[in-house]
Amino acid sequence: MLTRLYLDNFKVFVNFELQTKSLNLLLGTNGSGKSSTFEILRLLQKLIEGCAVSELFSLNSLTRWQGVNVQTFELDILGNGGQYRYRLEIEHQPNSRQSHIKHERLLFDGQPLYQFLKGKILWYRDDYSKGAYFDFDWNRSGLTTVLPRHDNTRVTWFKKRMTQIYILRLNPFAMQSRSELEVTLPAEDLSNFASWYRHLLQEQPAMYASLQQALREAIDGFDTLTLENDGEHARVLKVKFKSQHEETFRFSNKLEFRFDELSEGQQALIILYTLLNYSSENDVTFCLDEPENFLALPEIQPWLLQLADKTEEEACQVLMISHHPELINYLAASKGYWFERLNGRAVRVNPIKSDNLDGLPVSELVARGWINE
């Protein structure tokens, strides 16, 4: 579970720290930094996957009003029997407009697993004894060089856990029903949901029955979500509905649609319940940007209650940005964080405390602009 994110000298973040729990609701006005916290996680993922610093962190990402050329990022992850702390320092050179890694390190319960300093990598084994020491490209994370071995299981676990931070903003208008092949990760807009769902059925087939039942309870008339052959390798994601009245359908008691033919709300519900069921067997962090879009109040509430139960059981972790009154009133008093930028300066974040709500619903305080007073 991601427990802490620290940022300094990145855009509007100066000495910024967010401590997270299993369920977190991020609130604040537009431009207050909520979505940017998700952006940082995505950039760190891409760096560890192998992208160059110069592709991800430009000179323009420095905080404008500071005269410092070094950016600092830290994140803490709890898991694998201990506490990980990853730290990255990026140095920018204004004259040459070049950037490189100044320092990168990974600790486990305060003990070193990896260090990259002045272009040299030093690895530590699981017993913290020193391992390989060699030169490396200053423009890339040394974690890209990790290959699983019997004596580096802690570093390998951390790299895998970073891939299990899913940063998602659902866009039904981009959905594709046809899948040419399986994909192991969903796209940010979930446009490749059909291909990811195809992978999930192979990875954890036991999820199928529980997901179908959850969707029957959530969507009126829903029967099954299936992948049907469409050529030698291609599959098409289809949804079948059953009629409550025999005269509704002329030739069958079921009607089927391609996934992209469904309403935006139906697509959203299917995806949100898939995320819930997927999380039951996986240690994941979902960063969901306004998941309630396209849904009515009666539709989002049952999903929200199940989400709260799963995070309470620590079956998964969720960081969620929302403007939905139902979500705000249900979660903000105990799970909410308020982001604000005073006079256009650095972002600050504070937990929302129930004793400061004056008896009004949190959504009403947000609407009136009183939440930060």
From TrEMBL:
Highest taxon of source: Bacteria
Signal peptide: none
Cited InterPro entries: ATPase_AAA_core, P-loop_NTPase, RecF-like
Entries under Pfam families matching the protein: AAA_21
GO molecular function terms noted in the UniProt entry: ATP binding; ATP hydrolysis activity
Stored PANTHER family: ATPASE AAA-TYPE CORE DOMAIN-CONTAINING PROTEIN, ATPASE-LIKE PROTEIN
Protein name, UniProt field: ATPase AAA-type core domain-containing protein
